[in-house]
């Protein structure tokens, strides 16, 4: 039976299996990296409260269209379920509902795939109303084709005539309609939240502050870096949650970071994982917009993870899916307190010890506010209110100062320098 059987509105998704075997098909015959990916599937199951009792892998160029595993391996899996007392199988590879049902009927236990596990973690972790609604939407969109395929196969078995519907088919049709209606409601609710966020966004855009977004694989240390930068800014009171668990952050938080008088906006958002379900990316587009609209992406990499390279590639590939391709990326290698002096091609930091954080802030400011142009401005003390924002955006050098005011050279991006020259009194010396 598939998980939607337990589905209860509004977002009560329950996975009823406890002791599971994880199964996977290594399609690329990449033994080492596949075993690390299976390790990740295991962590995802554990994050869902499941107990992983065993693991089984088949190396094959293709998945069997009927039962994913080939005959012999499937029999091995069936025996394993009995021996280990498993009540469920979690497939690393994505399964169609028909395939899952066939495996379930051979092995006599529930069969789910990794996507269902990820969706379940999201529904457990969602805290804000937006994250809850987005998760529910992703879940329904994932389940709907399964219900429809159930209905179609039920209809097919009974000849498919409308007047001759079986109870199974009717139930599936009814559930599908309920799901579709709920998806429509969710879409409207999310659009409203999105509209409100858009207004905040426009307000924020008016401030002229450049925006950076933290991106990276889940558990890489994005929220920890946000907290380090908040501490430097003297704003530790607005810390975000950091935790040693997968998908600790599901909402976007935006904070103003100020380093040596210069400020920018920084957003921390949901982390990535390999094969992030497409329905999740779609449902979370509003949350991920912070990244898509940033001027700079700070890609946080857990350098102590042996698989950091694969995970960094996955993260950078996911940027296309969320519409953030083309935005400059600054790679930051975190947790370097755990790597014994090893170096990589990028900035080395440790949020734990604070190593490299100052250098990183200088680099962020340089990238966000490149010194493309400059202007000299005479500022009288009564105009200091206007000047203040340019002090926090542009590099400034005070050249003269007397009782009437000061002459300052502002240096930075062309548009901001132009705007400073318009709002303040330009001078030639
Ligand atoms: N040793 C060490 N641990 C770190 C460092 N930075 C973060 N951590 C730990 O790594 C874990 C994950 O940190 P988070 O900041 O929550 O990671 P995240 O990228 O925000 O994760 P998600 O929100 O789940 O995507 C926490 O237990 C942190 O304490 C570091 O520099 N060194
Ligand atoms: Mg986080």
How many helical elements? 13
Characterize the biggest β-sheet: 6 strands, mixed
Give the structural class.
Answer: alpha/beta
What is the CATH topology of the largest domain? Rossmann fold
Counting structural domains, the number is 4
Question: What does it look like?
Answer:
It is elongated and about 90 Å long. Strand 8 (296-302), helix 10 and strand 9 form a beta-alpha-beta unit. It has helices at 31-47, 71-84, 97-107, 114-125, 129-157, 167-205, 222-232, 278-283, 285-292, 308-321, 357-368, 384-393, 414-423; strands at residues 19-26, 51-59, 88-91, 110-113, 211-216, 253-259, 262-268, 296-302, 329-334, 347-348, 373-380, 395-402, 405-412, 425-426. The chain has a six-stranded mixed sheet with strand order 6-7-5-8-9-10. The chain has a four-stranded parallel sheet with strand order 2-1-3-4, with helices on both faces. It folds into four domains: 3-125, Rossmann fold, CATH 3.40.50; 129-203; 209-368, Rossmann fold (3-Layer(aba) Sandwich), CATH 3.40.50.300; 373-426. With 429 residues, the protein is α/β, with parallel strands linked by helices. Magnesium ion is lined by residues 222-223, 248-249.
């Amino acid at each position: 039976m598939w998980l939607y059987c337990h589905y209860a509105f509004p977002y009560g998704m329950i996975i009823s299996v406890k002791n599971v075997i994880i199964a996977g098909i290594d399609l690329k015959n990449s033994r080492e990296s596949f075993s690390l990916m299976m390790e990740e599937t295991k962590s995802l199951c554990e994050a869902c409260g499941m107990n992983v009792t065993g693991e089984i892998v088949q190396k094959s160029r293709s998945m069997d269209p009927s039962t994913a595993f080939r005959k012999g391996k499937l029999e091995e899996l069936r025996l394993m379920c009995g021996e280990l007392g498993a009540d469920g199988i979690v497939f690393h590879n994505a399964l169609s509902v028909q395939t899952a049902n066939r495996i379930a009927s051979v092995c006599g236990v529930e069969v789910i795939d990794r996507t269902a596990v990820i969706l379940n973690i999201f529904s457990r972790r969602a805290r804000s109303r937006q994250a809850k609604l987005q998760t529910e939407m992703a879940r329904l969109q994932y389940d709907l084709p399964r219900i429809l395929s159930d209905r179609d196969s039920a209809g097919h078995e009974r000849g498919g005539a409308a007047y001759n519907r079986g109870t199974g088919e009717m139930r599936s049709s009814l559930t599908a309609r309920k799901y579709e209606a709920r998806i429509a409601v969710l879409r409207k609710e999310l659009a409203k939240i999105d509209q409100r966020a858009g207004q905040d966004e426009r307000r924020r855009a008016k401030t002229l502050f450049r925006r950076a977004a933290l991106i990276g694989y889940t558990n890489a240390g994005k929220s920890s870096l946000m907290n380090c930068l908040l501490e430097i800014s003297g704003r530790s009171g607005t810390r975000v949650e950091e935790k040693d668990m997968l998908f600790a952050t599901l909402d976007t938080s935006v904070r103003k970071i100020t380093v040596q008088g210069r400020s920018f906006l920084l957003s921390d958002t949901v982390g990535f994982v390999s094969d992030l379900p497409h329905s999740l990316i779609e449902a979370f587009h509003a949350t991920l917009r912070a990244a898509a609209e940033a001027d700079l992406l700070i890609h946080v990499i857990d350098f102590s993870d042996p698989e950091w390279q694969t995970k960094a590639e996955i993260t950078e590939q996911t940027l296309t899916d969320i519409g953030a391709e083309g935005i400059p990326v600054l790679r930051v290698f975190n947790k370097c307190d755990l790597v014994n002096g090893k170096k990589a091609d990028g900035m080395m930091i440790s949020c734990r010890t604070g190593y490299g954080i100052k250098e990183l802030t200088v680099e962020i400011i340089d990238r966000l506010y490149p010194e493309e142009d400059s202007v000299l401005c005479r500022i009288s003390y009564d105009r200091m209110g206007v000047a203040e924002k340019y002090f926090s955006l542009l590099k400034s050098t005070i050249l003269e100062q007397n009782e009437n005011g000061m002459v300052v050279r502002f240096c930075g991006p062309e548009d901001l320098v132009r705007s400073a020259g318009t709002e303040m009194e330009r001078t030639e010396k």
